[in-house]
Sequence to fold (875 residues):
Amino acid sequence: MEAVVASLLERDSELRTLARAVDDAAAGTSRVMLVQGEAGIGKTSLVRAFLASVDGRARLLVGACDDLLTPRTFGPFRDAVESADGALAEALVAEPDRELVYHALLEDLSRPGMPTVLVIEDAHWIDDASLDALRYVVRRLENLRAVIVLTYRDDEIDADHALRSLLGGLTGASARRLRLRRLSPESVGALGAQAGVDGTALFAATGGNPFFVTETLAAPSDVVPATVVDAVMARLARLSADTRAALEQLAVVPSHVETWLVDSLLGGFGAIAEAEVVGIVEMRPEGLAFRHELARRAVERSLPALRRIELNRQVLRSLLKRDNADLSRIVHHAVAAGDTEVVLSRGLAAAREAAHVGSHRQALSHYERLAPHLDQLPVCDRAEILDEYAWQLYAAQRYAEAVDAAREAVTLHERADAPVELGHSLVVLSRAAYMADRPSYAVSTIERAVQILGRTDDAPAQAYAGTYQGALLALTDQPEEAVVRLSEARDVASEVHRDDLVALCLNYLGGARVEMGDLGGLQDIRASLALALSLPHHHEYAARAYTNLAEELFRSRRYAELEPVVTEGLVYSREHELPGHAYNLEAHRALLYMTSGEWDAAEKLLRRLVASIPDPGQLARLTLPPLGRLLARRGRPEAEEVLLRAWQTSLRGDAVQSLGPAGIAMVEWAWLSGDIGLAQEQVDVLLRRAGRTSSGLRYRGELLAYLRRAGAPAAPFPGCPPEWDAVLKGDWRRAADLWQELGDPYERALTLAFSDDVPATMQALEVLDALGAAAPAGVVRRRLRRLGVSHVPRGPQTSSRTNPAGLTNRQLDVLALLADGLTNAEIAERLVLSTRTVDHHVSAVLTKLGATSRREAARLAADLVPTGRAARPPR
Fold:
């Protein structure tokens, strides 16, 4: 009783908030309630009190995540429906399909009648499949009649924790965060007085942590224990030897122990009854459990190593006798018991189960546990597992490690003289090598795969290798050859009914066509996406279609179409735990920010991406060059280091799609530095390599434009994109119009700046100052002086371009005019921007303000926009 009283002190407000959420759900407004706090703060006690208070007013589904080596797939949902009926219970069969589980969960949480309360405790241990299911339903919260309660330890959720992606998307009225605080000195003092303990000393020792307080009060001593472990062990010392032995056995089982497992391990509840009486363990609907996980851990960690191994062996024996025992639990105890045979057999099954439902993080964890023991398996089995392991490493964006695993699989298949399996391994190795920025190795590897499989009669395998060979041709500046090879591979794939390969062929076929100047290729990529989305278990192919579509839309400057593709693709990639594709799409969002003038947002996102992974392989071409370029424009000294790194990285890729962005970025930096010769290497390489393909022609046009700005002779060429053609011809009015139509204020400003027209150059300077483009603004000020302007405006001196809402200067301008009642078209005219760019700015402003309408944003503008801002149009 002491434990319950202590843990619920000072929690009335939280209980009322949770209860109101149920009332709101009954009225049609669903919410996610986030109960957070350190271990022992009373999250579970609060939730239980809440559930007791709404029992009869809501349908209750309660599950928990376990502290296993690898979390159980759909673990908390399996717990929640163990004694419940409904669609979710039916969907969670032995090998559940993730899409069916998503729809079943949505159906259960939107039932008519009384609302449903779904509780998931200890979400800091959640598995990917469950997290993805939560993301799915949370995005459809308006269709539910439910309260979703998540408890988690916020001090265990770092920036890279998987749960962050869910928490970061919960904003506004849909989510409530209840951060539980420690008990006050007054409450702890009152509890101490009731027990005859010095309250001041009690608070000093426990810091007000409710669990530590109650354990200390229950300890058989007048002396306050120094730690939680001391308090727990002091309580255990009072128990009989049989009860202590029973508690030790239960302590090696994370979370709860089902009745059948208690019977199997202890022969019933007799030996544990004494521990229940004193409040160390308690019965819950799901089984017997320590009153708090901290107590279980204290007991487990007090065990000698050999004793812990033996206790885990007993649990393992019981689990192996159970037909439906969870594979992750078996593997957890097999590892702890040192049973390699079970780790290999059940660990492989667990890895494949997790991969089947798209839980790539859990699958990878299981494969990593298998890896040290693979030499105990036959050669063919080892090779097959290494192939699967390599694919999971690839999905996790660990490309170099994927190369190593795939290469080892290739060696084993060679030893086993298995040509079809060898061909498959070579395809996996080729893909991993390409993403690890080893394109030459990738090409030679795929050519070998095609040769080996060509000598077999396995048509599906031949289509598989042909598809990836065509993809590499498309990615290494050979679009014409790619179209021929991919068309052949698609025909074979269709004949053998491999729709997944048909989808992949369409993906790269479309990209190759776009690179040949045929924008009809975009429809091929969209068809690839639609087909991949319709196929079960081909999530990576669908995510790849999103990323390739984003890339071609950006290269084709179809920015309005790009934003929804990025948004949808990010949701899909995160839902299916594909971080490499999410990285790619986030990079394209940053490029979109940069192009449209959202430089603060672009820099923040690019810095985060660059810092998130030491070597993203091929994907570095999407982040390092634009970050270095942005830093150069802003006059940051670190730009040179970033750009040199970008260039060295691009040389590994050795294709125009890598060399172009990095080379052009270096050329722009050299121009801004006043010495175009600093980028002579990049100029020479790009003049030699940039051309023929659509991307190459754009890079060539941009390169020549910078050479022209630097005073070198440069002329347009056949196939030159219209915007660069106008720049190179000196037709600044047409070029400026084209850049405005495309929605690129920076390039438009540079075009105006080199017009030799004073009003146009002054207008360019104002735009550059607003963007924070200090380096090119300096170039323009020098041009104005050469044009005879005696009073050149000074640049921003102390403006920080920051505010509480995180709006950029340009967004503040847009907000000010929006508050004045102007339409997007009128704002575009006033600020000399394209309507499309203003549309993007308005969307960004509403998002950052958390506003749902222009009217609400206008109301907030009074507190954010300085008086008179944007009252005059740019000169």
Observations:
- Residues 623-729 form one domain.
